[in-house]
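Q: Hi! First time doing this. I have a protein sequence and I read that you can turn it into a structure. Is that right? Here it is:
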Amino acid sequence: MSAPSPSRLTRLLEAVLETGTALDLPGTLRHIVAGAAELTGAAEAELVPADPARDGLDPIRTPVEAPGADAGRAPGLRTPIHVGAEEFGELCLTGRPGAAPFTVEDGRLLEVLAAQAGIAIGNARLYERARQRARWIEGAAAVTTALLTGESAEDALMTVAERARLLAGASAGVILQPTPEGGMEIVTASTPDDPAGIVGTTIEPGSPVLTQLLGGEPVFLTDSATDPRMTTHVRHRFGPSMMLPLQANGRLIGTLALPRRRGGRPYTALERLLATQFASQAALALVLADARRRRERLAVYEDRDRIARDLHDLVVQRLFATGMMLESTRRRPGADDVGEVLGRAVEELRSTVQEVRTTIFALQQPPADPPTGLRGRVLRETAVAAARLGFPPSTQFTGAVDTRVTDPVADSLLDALRAALGAAAGRPGVSRVAVTVEAGVALPDGREGVRLAVADDGEVAGGVMGTGTGPGPETGTWNRTVWLSPL
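A: Yes, that's right. Below is the predicted 3D structure, encoded as C-alpha cells:
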C-alpha cells in the first residue's frame, strides 16, 4: 500500500498538534472530533465515551455541515481510543456525502490520530484532576479561614454548605445534624433554587440511610428521588447526591449533603474523593472554631467574675463601712440638726449597695446563656427597656426572689414589668426609672407574696396595675406602678 500523500500527512500533523492545544478534557475531545472529520472528510464525527460517569462526559460530535449528507452515505468508520490500558471510548465517523467509501488509508490515519488522542486525553485528565484538587483545597482553606475568624455557629454551617455546593456544582448544599430522637434534621441549606421546605426536614429513626450516616459512612446516590434508602419528602427534587460525614476526632458533628438536580450529571470518583476530604477538613475546622468560641467565652466569663469579686470585696464593703459610720454619727448626742441629712445619706448608700449587688449578680451570669431565675429575667427586661428609654433603669431585689417565686408567678410578674416599662418609655420627661422586686412581703390577707414596684419621674401620672399606686407628680414624687401576688 502506498504511503499517504504529503498533503494528508500535513493534515494529520496539524490534527495531532491541535489535540494538544486545549488543556481541559472537553476542549481536547472537541479538537479530536473536529480533527478526525477534517482529516478524513467525514460528514460527521462522534466520540462516544465507554464510561460516561467516569469523567462526567456525554458523547461529543461535530455538526453536520454537508448539504444532503443524510442521503447516500457509505458505511461508517470506527476506531477505539485507549488511554494507557483503559479503553476510553470510540471515535465514530459517518461516511462521506455521495456514498464515497472510507479507504484503508483513512483507517490508518485515524488510528494514528486515535493513538495521539489517547495521550492528549491522559494529559487533559491529569490537568483536570490537578485543577479540581486545587479548587477543593482552596475552598477548604477559605472555609477554615472563615470559620476561625469569629463566625457564629449558624454562619459557620452556612459557610461550609455554600462553599461545598459551589465546588461540587450541586443544586443545594445541606447540613444535617443528629436529633435527640435518633434521627437527623436539615438545619442549614444553601441553594439558588426555591429553598422552601428544605430546612427542618427530618430523616426519621429507622430510615435505611440513617445507619450509614450516624455511623460516619459516606453515602452516594445515583438518584435521590428513586433510591429506596431515601424517605424525606424533598427527595423528589434531586438526582445524584453525596452525603458525607462531618466527623473529627471521632465526633460526628453532622452530615454534608450535596444533591444535584434530577437528571443531573453523576458524580465522578474523583469528585467523591475530593468532597469527602473537604468534609473531613471542614469538620475539623468546625470543631476548632467551636473550641475557640468556648475559650473566648470562658475568658469573658472569667473577666466578669473577677470584676464581680472586685466589686464585692472593695466597693460593697467600703460603701457598707461608710454607711455604718454615718449611722453611728447620726446617733451621737447633738446630731439632731443633721440627722435628717445623714438618714437620707444612709438610705442612698443602702440603695447603692443593692444596685451594686445586682450588677455583681449580672456579671456572674454566663454571658451567652439565657438568664435563669427571676432575678436574671428581670435584668434582661430592664436591659431591653434601656434601648427604648435611653438609659438603664435601676434595679433592686430583696429576699430570695430566685428560690421562693414560682414560675407561674414569675411569668405574670414579668408581664407586668414589661407593660410598666413600656408605659414609662412612652411618657415624656422620663429621665429615671426604678424597679424593685421584693420576695416575702406580707399581703393584706396575711399570706406571703412578691411585690413589684416600677417608679419613674415622667410628667404624666402612671397607671395602676395590681393593688396599689403611689401619688402622682403633682405632689413632687414619682409615678409608680405596684404589682402584688401570692408566692
